[in-house]
Amino acid sequence: MEITFLKYQGAGNDFILLDNRDRKYSSLNKNLISKLCDRRFGIGADGLMLLENHPDYDFQMHYYNADGGLGSMCGNGGRCIVAFAHHLKIIETETNFLAVDGPHYAKITQNPFVVELQMIDVEEFRIDKEATILNTGSPHYVLPVVDLPSFNVYEKGRDIRYNDEFKAQGINVNFCEWKNNILKVRTYERGVEDETFACGTGVTAAAMAHALKHQLEGDIDTKISVLGGELNVKFKKTGNRFTSVFLIGPAELVFKGTINII
């Protein structure tokens, strides 16, 4: 099979994007997707997305983790597929599309090219000692730490992801530190099973956990620093409820090409 693809990145979170409106790539299976995402023997990516037609939305997003398994919502992936839809001239500056966790609205601003993606409302969470556990389209465990740059994200994140409570379904593990009015976040992602340069649902969860811990209220705009760059998370917090949630940041076309899968 010859596959024509575009590669996008959002704050260092990188994805393979395929136009599947003609169902050409519907036969891709877990092994093939994993091979495409492999950084030594394939294209290399944190995940792969299929853009498909939908009768009630501009398009539908199907997201697969780097291990080839069907994934939950990916925030930076959502922003990148919006940029992809713009590239394909499916949309102009605004869109409503469908993802695994439901409908999403997004808008594009130019100079520089930035995608603002509306995430799901959140009103359920759990506090476990110092950690906050919540679902922002994907399940997340958020833990504040000291000296994040030297923290062993892979080892500690893997320990939590595979502990007795979470190993069956998996969980994404975020470590964060508030410094100079910026929330610094590093994430171990399930499905990738490693630290990634950014995680959109993860930084959204981290911003919410920070607001809960510090009892913030009202309209909140949190600057986020990740290994791959800068993001912003905006929401309205009323008590324990988060609404009008937006993940904001760049979505960049890196390269395009074809690959033959044998």
TrEMBL record:
Documented EC number(s): 5.1.1.7
Pfam family, one: DAP_epimerase
Top-level taxonomic group: Bacteria
SUPFAM superfamilies reported for this sequence: Diaminopimelate epimerase-like (SSF54506)
Catalytic center residues: 74 (proton donor), 74, 199 (proton acceptor)
Subcellular location: Cytoplasm
UniProt-annotated binding residues for substrate: 13, 65, 75-76, 172, 189-190, 200-201
Top-rank EC class of the record's enzyme: isomerase
UniProt KW Ion transport keyword: no
KW NAD (keyword) present: no
Reactions that this protein is recorded to catalyse: (2S,6S)-2,6-diaminopimelate = meso-2,6-diaminopimelate
Pathway(s) the chain acts in: Amino-acid biosynthesis; L-lysine biosynthesis via DAP pathway; DL-2,6-diaminopimelate from LL-2,6-diaminopimelate: step 1/1
Protein task: Catalyzes the stereoinversion of LL-2,6-diaminopimelate (L,L-DAP) to meso-diaminopimelate (meso-DAP), a precursor of L-lysine and an essential component of the bacterial peptidoglycan.
Record's subunit section: Homodimer.
Protein name: Diaminopimelate epimerase
Species annotation: Pedobacter flavus
